[in-house]
């Protein structure tokens, strides 16, 4: 991990115990600026990265576009797996500032898969 990294921490509902905590990033500067959680507990993170080696898993855009890219990632409910992660950016400065979910569609997708 590099100069700074995004991180995600999940605490139990009573606030008395850590469920998981993990870093997300590459060799440069990575920061998260938005998180959303679906009905089954998967976390979706939006942010920005300068890293050419940011972990791209099942990516829509698997390579760094240039300067600074936005990113979106999904981490499973237990925090044990990066479901997908993708760059989102072109050759200039791009930022991921937030994220929102269509919870009904997300629940239906998991219900019928």
Protein model, in words:
There is one protein chain. The chain is 9% helix and 37% strand. 25% of the residues are buried. It has one helix at 103-112; strands at 6-11, 18-24, 30-37, 43-49, 69-75, 82-88. The protein contains 1 helix and 6 strands, in the order ββββββα.
Describe, in short, the structure shown.
It is built from one helix and six strands. With about 110 residues, the chain is mainly beta.
- What count of domains describes the coordinates? 1
Strand order of the largest sheet: 3-4-5-6
Summing up helix and strand content along with how strands pair, one would put the structural category as: mainly beta
What is the total tally of β strands? Answer: 6
For the largest beta-sheet, the strand count, sense and barrel status come to:
4 strands, antiparallel
Q: End-to-end distance, in Å?
A: 34 Å
Round the Cα radius of gyration to an integer and report it.
14 Å
Q: In percent terms, what proportion of residues is strand?
A: 35-45%
Number of helices: 1
Order of helices and strands: EEEEEEH
Averaged pLDDT, please?
89
